[in-house]
Amino acid sequence: MHLETLAIHAGQPPDPAHGAVMPPIYQTSTFAFKAVGQPGEFDYTRSGNPTRKALEECLAALEGGAHAFSFASGMAAVSVALALLESGDHVLVHDDLYGGTYRYLTGVTANLGVGVDFVNMRDLDALQAAIRPNTRLLWTETPTNPLMNLQDLEAIADIARARGVRTITDNTFASPCNQRPLDLGIDISLHSMTKYINGHSDVIAGALIVRDDAIAERLKFLQNATGTALSPFDSFLVLRGIKTLPLRVEAHNANALAMAHWLREQPQVAQVLHPGLPEHPQHQLAQRQMRGVGGTFSFRMKSGEAAVRLLNRVRLHTLAESLGGVESLIEHPFAMTHASMPEEVRRAVGITEEMIRISVGIEHIDDLIADLAQAMA
Ligand SMILES: *Cc1c(COP(=O)(O)O)cnc(C)c1O
Question: Is there an atom of ligand 1 within 6 Å of 191 CB?
């Protein structure tokens, strides 16, 4: 079935108890046993809950996975994925990635006897050379935030498989509607559902989706053991958001591409970093790997002062961190989302004062462009 249909129906048949069309919020911590030693399908909500199960079945269907696990945040999903590693293992990470994941890898994982190395995975030879005998996981994130770099997931999955290494992709920016890593041979797809999947800027949530039964069994164990699972109420909210995910992503894709085309014609704008534009260095890869390139991208003004002036003058766009909601958000990575990176690292990768990141919402594009035009005037 198509994504539009799966988003509405997968995992969500009418509720067996009363025929409720929306999965009810099973707001309970525990479930009655039939007799001693005879639990029903569920016994305790940390281990399993019907509302969360409905969400997880829907997520698995959307990504072409067999199993999905939902968590209290994207970072909880990151921490559980990294808990697949053991002391003595080595993980290779694409060198341009979400700041919170970088913080977890360097501040937590690296202290547990796991080797952590960063490599530019756009360079497949460098990737090959960096794999060690104890490398157990390749960590990708594409497109990246805020630089909009892509990695070739199919090529990376092929390399990893040949070397007996597992792969994970942080698919947050793309959403299942624009990119399906499992179809490209990646083992684990990760989402901050806080962003496009929920899409309404009112929940913090994360997910891991896999095909492999053995990885799924370990993730199920870790979800329960770490107590990081998503609550029933938040599971309900994400399910509600998912119903319109395909429609929203189509609107985000179209609005962001139109905004990117408009921005590159403005004399105050120095560069637009959007993989849907033909001048993007990985435009071909974007065309091959993604159905649409999403609603979030970056651009550079001609000076840092011009960027700050624009950001302080927008009216319809909200100056805020995060992305992927129905409303348009705009921010300054250098001073906001990426301020925790050391300044020399920010400058070395190109996160400078002129850069603006925009999460284009699903308002009318003419109103959004008019807002940026008045802020630049
Ligand atoms: C936001 C985000 C995360 C972390 O998710 P939270 O829900 O904020 O914990 C991880 N990866 C990417 C790419 C993100 O944008």
Answer: no
Q: Catalytic site residue 302?
A: no
Joined tokens for residue 54: 């409905």
Confidence of residue 339 (pLDDT cuts 50, 70, 90): confident
pLDDT in tens, 252-282: 999 999 999 999 999 999 999 999 999 999 9
Question: If you ran DSSP here, which 8-state letter would residue 15 be given?
Answer: P
- Distance, CA 75 to ligand 1 centroid (Å)? 6
In 3D, which of 147, 108, 119 has the Cα closest to residue 350? 147
Q: How far is the CA of 71 from the centre of ligand 1 (A)?
A: 12
Identify whether 125 is a catalytic site residue. Answer: no
Give the class (CATH, top level) of 3-242. Answer: alpha beta
- Residue closest via CA to ligand 1's atom 5 equals 74
- CATH class belonging to 245-376: alpha beta
Distance CA 235, CA 215 (A): 22
- Mean pLDDT, residues 296-321: 98
Q: Is 246 exposed, middle or buried (0-12, 13-18, 19+ CB in 10 A)?
A: buried
Give the pLDDT score at 185: 98
Q: Is 313 a catalytic residue?
A: no
Q: List Cβ neighbours of 304 (8 Å cut-off, separation of 6 or more).
A: 334, 352, 353, 354
Give every strand in the sheet of 90-94, ordered side by side: 67-71, 206-210, 188-192, 166-170, 135-141, 90-94, 115-119
Rounded Cα gap, residues 315 and 328, in angstroms: 11
Domain range summary for the chain, segments of one domain joined by + = 3-242, 245-376
Best residue among 71, 75, 144 to mutate for probing ligand 1's pocket (most ligand atoms within 8 Å of CB) is 75
Give dist(CA 229, CA 48) in Å, integer: 9
Mark whether 195 is an active-site residue: yes
The one-letter code for the residue type at 21 is V
What is the number of the ligand 1 atom nearest to the C-alpha of 78? Answer: 10
Q: Is the CB of 75 under 6 A from ligand 1?
A: yes
Catalytic residue selected from 15, 46, 132, 264:
46
Sheet holding 329-331, edge to edge: 269-273, 296-301, 355-359, 329-331, 318-319
